[in-house]
Amino acid sequence: MSEQGAVPLIVMTRSQDHVEAINSTLRNAGHPVHCTWLPDARDLSDAITQLNPELLIAFIDELGIDVSSLAKIKQQSAPEMPVVIVREQVDEAVIADAMRSGAQDVVTLANRSRLQSVVSRELRAYRLERALSSTLSSAREYREQLQRFLEGSADAITHVQEGIIVDANRAWLELFGYSGEDALTGTPLMDLFEPETHPALKGALVACLQGKWTDHALKVQALLSDGSSVPLTLTLARANYENEPATRVSIPAHNKSADHDLELQLAQAVKNDASTGFLQQRYLVTAIEDRCANAMKGGVRQFALIKPDRFSEIQSAIGVLASEDFMGQLAEAVRMQLTANDLCGRFGGNGFLILLERGTARDVETWAENVVARIRDHNFSFDEKNLAVTVTVGLGLLPASNPDIGAAIADAVNATRRGRELGGNQMYAVDKSDTDTRVQAYDKIWVKHIKSALMENRFRLVQQPIASLLGEDKGMFDVLVRMLDEQGGEVLPAEFIRAAERNDLMKNIDRWVIGASMSFAANRKASCIFVRLSKDTILDKSVVGWLETQLRSLKIEPKRLCFQVTEEIATQYVRQTTDLSESLRKLGFRFALEHFGTGRDPLKLLGGIAMNFIKVDGSLMQGLSTNQLQQQRVKGLVEAAKKKGVETVAERVEDANTMAVLWQLGVEFIQGYFVNAPEDVTMSGDR
Fold first, then answer.
1. Domains of the chain: residue spans and CATH
2. Which pTM value belongs to this model?
3. Cα–Cα dist 313/211, whole Å
4. Cα(242)–Cα(195) distance, rounded to whole angstroms?
5. CB neighbours of 352 closer than 8 A, spacing ≥ 6?
6. Looking at residues 632-661, what average pLDDT do you find?
């Protein structure tokens, strides 16, 4: 009798002892096989048809049939099924001859270890080939079905009033798997989407009704009538339905680019790992090298290596062969945490390597912590077994200057190893701090460049717009500093700011930035320009008098400048920050705390320091659209700020879904690459 879940294979031999030897050898290797004994080669064709085996093992010396004849029978009935030959004596010439005749390999019972390895290899290759064929076939079939559907329909459209579907066209009904014109009338729109999609969708509906949603694509997970879930992209627009305000939600119908996109997806399928859908390692490395050939204009690049903890125990619990199914489920859970820009691939057997591009290192760490929490809470299911799994995420930084991809990946590998040694279920980053000697050598070079750039006015400012979620654009900008090298090339702050901080140069850079910002405010109609101050300026008692002199010289409205200090600096120097805030506000300037909400007691700072704005830290934006705990955290900060009459700005917002949730939470302004990249608009530093 066949065991449930056992691997079916045929053993062709005259001796039952051989069958038992194969059975025990493979089971000792962790393969739950079911061996069918076939003593007569004439029955092979019928046996293949009835049993659908995944492997054929033939003791060819005693069967009276050569390998070519055996392969011919196999080719007619199951061309993809691997064949392994067993002989008394094996050498390279015997193996080569058998492979030319159609077998995959030749083994001997005298070397059981090699037999186990060959069978493991062939079973895995067979399953991967079958999975890839199935994937390509399904993709082609889905494309044909989708094309037939879309060619006969318009956009899928529904109208929603107060969250309830009041009308849905035929294309919408068919797409979601319903029949009958009124099948969805009166149904809450949220019932058609996964719960983790709800906050973003609710926020987008509210913003749309208020006329503040403009051509943003909203990514959602739709629930079809058969219970399956599929990713969709929605567009929303304000509309009227039977003379009442409504929101029109639509899914664009077939367009010319869809064919091309699907062709590209099919072409990419051969590069992807069959079990996980992620890139195979060699294609991943190529993609990483191509991406890193172009420098980032801002932010950081880091590698994250995700590996399941205690993988051998997982294999023991579910079986060696089912471990590929586990990797597929793990990949789906990880995929939910990725952005469209992330590069991810299978790495080292049971690991996933990801190249992340984020605003700061803290954003990456928050992302990694979210992955660890998501996997810990995820339910992995195998037949009737439920499995609790944890992972370790190791991080490796890819420096902006002189990036070494191999070294950064090695850092991620070492970080993962160290995190697992400490018990796993965590994010871990290797401390790569330089020795004092290297820091001194590094600083000696940069101090010279910084002083030269200050003397020769080789700094410039770039502005990043801050968008309002409540009304018209108020002309608000955040300014950032860039240094130009002697050839005119742009140098990002990440390369020189640390050296400036260690060598008492930040006060000089701050004053250059403040002066350039005042000049900009005097010549442009910006309502508010955010200018960040370093620790050195916070501790500089002469800065207030210097600012008074600048005001008299330039004759600008001081309220058009808002000076901002990080929450970390404000926490370390509460008294000095409080004094400076009060002095600046007396002069008419505005004041803000940036990177707010991740410190020990942000609400205490909010109550103790006079300010006009808080800028909610960008790390809290990582995964915000699906993380309810994070949403509650941001909501608490926003509500506390409103009670104090302090306006809120969300930092590093990078997608429409996050923006939609922020609408729902009551945040008033947003900044980030979703609004505008800081490099897009440049302003002169001449004064």
1. 7-132 (3.40.50.2300), 152-256 (3.30.450.20), 275-429 (3.30.70.270), 445-683 (3.20.20.450)
2. 0.68
3. 54
4. 30
5. 276, 278, 305, 306, 307, 330, 331, 334, 344, 345, 346
6. 94
